[in-house]
């Protein structure tokens, strides 16, 4: 059976300066990282969602999806406390599921 060591076998041939430069370059790339939010920010989201559901207001959600920040505008139809997700109806009456932990920002649409 052939066991491939992957990139480990090639790092021995690289100069330490090259390895260091590659690591710095990889750390410098900021794509794919989900922003970290604190508990206070999630409380603000909760307040905005509750008011929007009560007054049937349109919200714009910025959420993390596949390494990018995506946007969705719609009305919150249902909040699932157990699964920690929102069901949002957009302008075309399409249902979208948003995980609460993926939400980066919420704004009112005027």
Automatic annotation (TrEMBL):
**Top-level taxonomic group:** Bacteria
Instruction: Return any one Pfam family short name.
Output: YolD
Name under which the protein is recorded: YolD-like family protein
